[in-house]
Amino acid sequence: MVDIRYITEDDWQALKQVRLAALLDAPTAFGVTHAAAAAYTDQAWRDRAAGRGPARYLLAFEDAIAVGIVAHLPGANNELELIAMWVAPAQRGTDVGVQLVGAVKAWAITNDCRRVLLDVSPDNARASAFYKKLGFVFLPQWEPLDSHPEIQVQKMAWTNDGSTGRT
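-> structure tokens emitted (167 positions)
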């Protein structure tokens, strides 16, 4: 049984462990590098876990071990940005990723967010297909990935009104 929940400051070590694992596993999928995140102080990890900053983190726990992560932060125009999505290799193909994204969507609905946005490399076929399956659509918006500016990521959107997400 996997438990998906918002974390607290007490979970900072689990957050650190799963985030660094994600950055090692998929170094060109995130806006921060493993080296940069590994240099964060313990207090910085505590602050992230406690929600002292714009991002709110959810972790997926199986037998008290973090096996997945997602975060969200407020965006412009009553939108929510989905960031830091990752599931441990042993959990891929299960519903852990669906549950993590579902928790972000539920927060967006509860808080009257117009849509949920994320960035993904269209070359990452598995991630793109996963997000499409969950109702996200590609938007005609591209930008360089902060951690690897040579990689262009494309914006995807999910709206809670059933439309395509285009504005």
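Residues 163-167 have pLDDT under 50 and may be disordered.
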